[in-house]
Amino acid sequence: MQQRSNDSHLYDDIIHLPHHVSSVHPHMSMRDRAAQFAPFSALNGHSAAIRETARLTDQRVELDETEADLLNEKIMLLQERLDEEPAAAFTWFVPDIRKEGGSYRTLSGRVKKILPFENTVIMANGFRIPLDEIIEIEILK
Question: pTM value?
Answer without folding.
Answer: 0.63
